[in-house]
């Protein structure tokens, strides 16, 4: 990742793209007050500097086939590098784990998971618990309502 000094226009581009990654350079230019070619060069520079990590569609859980969402707090058994690496490998390879965060506090990691049903959630919990050299304790909660994701409030139709 290269160094890039962000000015107000770069920050405006990032803010606009956070809300709508489908904006064209022409649309960005009109919203910011720059030319489309300037916006294109700035976007490319932001991508190359690692400020823009990707462009994604946010799917509904029903469209994705994963209507059951949960969060799992993980306390590690050990912080030995090989143990942590094995856990990280499991997390990276498990498609049901959508987001993973290393934490401070009582638990070492927070996992956001999405599965098709409670049986799949139970199976994932069993797999995590089966990592005996890695995982010391798990605490799981099922999400009842999705109010806000990726910084955006969800429409009422998405909440239930």
From TrEMBL:
Which GO molecular-function terms appear in the entry? sequence-specific DNA binding
Task: Check the record and name the Gene3D superfamilies matching this protein.
Answer: 3.30.70.920, Winged helix-like DNA-binding domain superfamily/Winged helix DNA-binding domain (1.10.10.10)
InterPro entries (alphabetical): ArsR-like_HTH (IPR011991), AsnC-type_HTH_dom (IPR000485), Dimeric_a/b-barrel (IPR011008), Tscrpt_reg_AsnC-like (IPR019888), Tscrpt_reg_AsnC/Lrp_C (IPR019887), WH-like_DNA-bd_sf (IPR036388), WH_DNA-bd_sf (IPR036390)
User: What is the name of this protein?
Assistant: AsnC family transcriptional regulator
Can you cite an annotated GO cellular component? cytosol
Q: What are the top taxonomic ranks of the organism?
A: Bacteria, Pseudomonadati, Pseudomonadota, Betaproteobacteria, Rhodocyclales
Q: Which UniProt keywords apply?
A: DNA-binding, Transcription, Transcription regulation
* Matches recorded under Pfam families: AsnC_trans_reg, HTH_24
Coiled-coil stretches are: none
Q: Which PROSITE patterns match?
A: HTH_ASNC_2 (PS50956)
Q: Which positions fall inside the HTH asnC-type domain?
A: 6-67
What is the top-level taxon of the source organism?
A: Bacteria
Q: Name one GO biological process term.
A: response to amino acid
Keyword flag Membrane: no
